[in-house]
């Protein structure tokens, strides 16, 4: 299996813009549950509850250094999607390889909504999302040379 990425914590200074020192201390880097798992589980640094129709934005405290030509796609954990109709607000999170160098250190956020009819509680340390690395290609006539500086939604602000 080709190794193409590595997870890191964002700096404490960066994280404190969106979270607390206690949450920062509780950040666990994503990991696979089994050798056959495609997804890297993202873990809650603190508990949260989502009633039906509610939305939460989780500052994961995680960044990913990804080789060029690869992307990290973020999804809700399959079981949570199935049991609670938990969905990401952007349907699939796309973490580009150059996001690691963004002004916000490539801090990965996950914004989710409970579309189901049952209240969901995610405990501290519980996996709530999963990330899968996928290789991608570009067109033969691609001539893009722009460099990312901003974070989420920044690539359309040129």
In which order are the strands of the major sheet placed? 2-11-6-8
β-strand percent reads: 25-35%
Low-confidence stretches: none
Give the rounded overall mean pLDDT. 94
Secondary-structure class: mainly beta
| CATH superfamily label | Deoxyuridine triphosphatase (dUTPase)
Q: Describe the main β-sheet briefly.
A: 4 strands, antiparallel
| The CATH class | Mainly Beta
**What is the alpha-carbon Rg in Å?**
16 Å
Shape: globular
**Count of domain modules:** 1
Summed up, the helix count is: 3
- What is the element string, with H for helices and E for strands? EHHEEEEEHEEEEE
Indicate the multimeric state. Answer: single chain
Share of helix, binned? 10-25%
Précis, in short:
This protein has three helices and eleven strands.
Description:
The protein is mainly beta and 158 residues long. The chain has one domain (5-152): Deoxyuridine triphosphatase (dUTPase) (Deoxyuridine 5'-Triphosphate Nucleotidohydrolase, Chain A, Distorted Sandwich), CATH 2.70.40.10. Helices cover 10% and strands 34% of the residues. It has helices at residues 12-15, 21-25, 78-84; strands spanning 5-9, 40-43, 48-50, 55-59, 62-66, 70-76, 86-88, 93-96, 109-114, 120-122, 127-135. The longest helix has 7 residues, at 78-84.
């Amino acid at each position: 299996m080709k190794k193409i990425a590595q997870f890191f914590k964002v700096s404490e200074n960066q994280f404190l813009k969106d979270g607390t020192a206690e949450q920062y201390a509780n950040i666990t880097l994503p990991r696979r549950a089994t050798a056959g798992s495609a997804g890297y589980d993202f873990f809650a640094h603190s508990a949260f509850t989502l009633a039906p129709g509610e939305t939460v934005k989780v500052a994961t405290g995680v960044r990913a250094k990804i080789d060029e030509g690869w992307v990290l796609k973020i999804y809700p954990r399959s079981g949570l999607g199935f049991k609670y109709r938990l969905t990401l607000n952007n349907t699939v999170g796309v973490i580009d390889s150059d996001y690691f160098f963004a002004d916000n250190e490539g801090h990965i956020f996950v914004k989710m909504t409970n579309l189901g009819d049952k209240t969901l509680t995610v405990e501290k340390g519980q996996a709530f999302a999963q990330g899968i690395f996928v290789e991608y290609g570009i067109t033969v006539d691609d001539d893009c040379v722009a460099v990312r500086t901003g974070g989420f939604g920044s690539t359309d602000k040129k």
